Amino acid sequence: MFGIVAEDYPFTLLELERRFADDASCRNYLFSLRWPDGFRCPRCGVREVSAMVRDLWLCLGCGYQSSVLAGTVFQDSHLGLPVWFRAIWHITSQKNGISALGLQRVLGLGSYKTAWLMLHKLRQAMVRPGRDRLAGVVDVDEAYWGAKEQGGATGRRTYTKALIGVAAQHDGKGIGRVRLQRIADTSRKSLHGFIAATIAPGSTVCTDGLNAYRNLVDYAHDREVQRQQREGEHLLPRVHRVISLLKRWLLGTHQGAIAHEYLDDYLNEFVFRFNRRRSASRGKLFYRLAQQAVQIAPTTYDQLVRT
């Protein structure tokens, strides 16, 4: 009944509409994504299960009742699963993404708030639980996001802008995978913490001459100081290319209207897109996001606005 082969996904919007026209077909798909090797009770681990009413599953070992939607992005949503599937398709099929207003219009939602909440929930699902850290040779730098400040901010000091840690893995002469994360400041604690969270020990970390990068533990450190900078020349061209693309995306798709408290969600989306930029199929991106959406805990509107 739930025999969906690995990495099975629609290739076109028409196929998506035909295949996932009702909640039952969507639940079938999500069941196979959540339990690809067959159902296992989250409480006792027993595989024997019996179907119940209201799409619940009864464990025959301990009597625990489970739902394919419980503990996922879709938990407690009043929207039908076909609407969610169309939202995932539109988010992943657009090269530069979609704004909440754009999603509201294309799905015919009556509320901007609903579209905004869907987008943020799905952006949080763009971070795969337990994802591998970057490895090999990795460039690290920082970038600022926010309106121009009126006096007071010089060098790496800032009062109202958000500070973003950026790590870009070498792939020959090009850029491999990246990681972006909002950081508190340019202190040694913040920068070393960002590196530890995003780069595997034993890797080579390339930075500029900022003193806070000194004394890295568990990494080879390639520290370069810019002696004389020519126009358009950077010590770390990979991270500067990523920073440029990020700012262009934020200013383009989202018109720069990014509140600092939600910036990490947008960074998650940028990383998800950038690291899959060579994917030959938009359908595969749909598959990846749906797969990750059943692996993360649900988030409510109240939880989001309190962040």
Strand order of the largest sheet: 6-5-4-7-8
Largest sheet: 5 strands, mixed
**Could you report the average pLDDT, rounded to the nearest whole number?**
86
Helix tally equals 10
Structural class: alpha/beta
Strand content: 15-25%
How many domains in all?
2
Order of helices and strands: HHEEEHHHEEEHEEHHHH
Your description of this structure?
The chain has 307 residues and is α/β, with parallel strands linked by helices. It folds into 2 domains: 141 residues, no CATH class; 123 residues, Nucleotidyltransferase, domain 5, CATH 3.30.420.10. Helix content is 36%, strand content 15%. The strands form 2 sheets. Strands 6-5-4-7-8 form a 5-stranded mixed β-sheet, with helices on both faces. Strands 1-2-3 form a 3-stranded antiparallel β-sheet, with no helix packed on it. The N terminus is likely disordered.
Please describe the structure with a list of short key phrases separated by commas or semicolons.
307 residues, alpha/beta, Nucleotidyltransferase, domain 5, 2 domains, five-stranded mixed sheet, three-stranded antiparallel sheet, 10 helices, 36% helix, 15% strand, disordered N terminus
